[in-house]
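Hi R.,

Here's the chain you asked about this morning:
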Amino acid sequence: MTIQEKYGFRKVLNARGPATILGAARVSDPIRKEIYDILGESVEIWELQRSASQRIARLTGAQAGCVVNCSSAGMAIAAAAVLTGSDPAKIKALPDVTWPRKKILIQKGQVTGAGDCPVWQVIKMTGAEYVEIGEALDCATFHLRAALDDTTAAAFYVMEDTFAPNLLPLETFVAICHEKGVPVICDAAYLTDFTMLAQIGVDLAIYSGQKWLGGCTSGIIAGRKDLVHACFMQEMGIGRPMKVGKEGIVSIMASIDSWLSRDSAAIEKRQQRLADTIAKALQGMAGVTCAVVKSLYSPSVRLHVDIDAEQAGVSAWEINEDMGRLDPVIKTDDYFVSGGKLIFDMAYLDSEDAALIADVLRSYLTGERRAAQRENVPKPRQDILYEMFNAWLDGDPRG
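And here is the predicted structure, written out as tokens:
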């Protein structure tokens, strides 16, 4: 009996990657063994965190690091830390900030989701005064300089590859903030270059432990030793409901060891074969174009399948929606599906998965398989998410 059969849930072919909504990383056997071993032990958490700090420093080049229960929690804890430092009275006072230095800035064009809650929410829950600078498509140096004053506790920067090109680049952002003595917090949940932020001078960087590193649900804060210390001290305050367990801390240490010793070339070669399986099955199909795209935000081989609905007779939107109702479910990176693009991440697929996905895609494109009749206009992603969450207990989240 499979675990799906035992507990009554559907198998997922995960072509999206380590998304939280799909259970995050598929944790490897060696890392699972480390987690298994620590679950049978008692340990002083501060000592485990200090050991983790040493490995985080080795991974990132930062002065220190600590483990939190996810990257969104890391953003809130980092925001709290710049407000309070290691002052226990201030830590206990949050979210009531009665001292002057309480503003946290962010470029308006970088206001995105911390997972699926808005980034401003994880900042404001600390009691910080949240300030957006610039415009949706533009932010200039004068916007930032005008906003930095003696009441500014920190400035947030979000690492993403989909923002407007006229926002301030990270190097410029950090340099201007440091001119005014303001620390920079960087959300880098999906980033795969773990050393660049310390080199640029980011004061606190937040990485996901449950995404590309391959640990269980967890996050990493890395940066200046005094600020990392202040982050750990939030265990005495608002960080307590976000505490990470011993299994999360050990999974980070084991996953860092695994990351630093991985054979990247062999992994890429295997994943390229999987992408080729899907791309070859779609060769010659009307209105279909395939391309492998690499990104700073994914170490995986990712196959982009562009579908011209007029030529193909079916849209990427319809295919993506219907694949989510199959058994096994097939999940893609669907952020660009309304624009006609399906993205398949090869990180968690094997040869049988790739062959099955290839057959399913081809069946939609030949008309052998028909997508269920739905609205012609793609729904916004957040609407789909809301409907799924709203129906999780008594309805049918798959529609």
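One quick note: The mean pLDDT is 94.

Cheers,
M.
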